[in-house]
Here is the input.
Amino acid sequence: GVSVTWWAGHGADVTAVPRAAQVGIMMIAAHLWKNRELSTTDALREVPFGAKAMLDTIRFHEYG
Here is the structure.
């Protein structure tokens, strides 16, 4: 048999998520909401610079 243990996330509740991640996600959501009529599958690939800067402070891997 095979046993796999995988841990993901920052903790059991939202208070464990770094503030930079919370703010970065809110910035992306606000950007997508404000520009929803312009959103296409290509436009969704771009991350606003401010949000990218916030998320870069805590990133573990490369993202788009």
User: Anything to note?
Assistant: The CA atoms of residues 32 and 41 lie 12 Å apart. The chain has a mean pLDDT of 77.
